[in-house]
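Chapter review: from sequence to fold.
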Amino acid sequence: MLDPYLLTVHTLTLRQLGTAEQLAEVTGQPLADVEANLEKAVADGAVLAAKDKFMIGPTGRTQLDEAYPTAFADIRASDAIRDAMDAFESGVNVQILSLTTDWQTKEVGGERVPNDHGDADYDAAIVDKLARVHEKTARVLAPLVAADPLVDRFLDRIGTALTRAEGGETDYVSGVRVDSVHTVWFQMHEHLLRLTGRERPE
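The token string follows.
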């Protein structure tokens, strides 16, 4: 697995611009450790700093590209993980994308129009479906959860977003300014691709 320094740099491939606090939330690392790792990464030229936010630089991407094959060698050699990823891509990931589209738009008179979220029953049905897909995802990704605790953390964060959406905070379905289901799912998917050495499907 990645050492704490490279894990911090890696987090900037999942959240492409973030504060130390936001990066610590993604990985669960102590904030002080993330801050120290970022300070070193900036000095190394691996990470670029803009006031209190950070983004990965070309040197950081090269460091990760060189580290991934060794750090994730066992994961990439696992048949169970390969099968889990196949099931993830062809199943739950497709379902999440479809449900996100259904959340953002709805069919009216045979045409797709923006969802104004005026139909509480329509929205509640989608959140319920998202929760069922979330439960299924935990089963599909079980081999990856066993191999990398960060995968389980992503699933927990998606569960937290769903709880807030169920409580009426609708931004937590697909909002970009909060850790919504869609935002955290995107981060998790990117992490899975980097773990397994796969490309994002078209």
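Two observations follow directly from the output. DSSP finds eleven helices and four strands in the chain. Strands lie at 47-50, 53-56, 105-108, 111-114.
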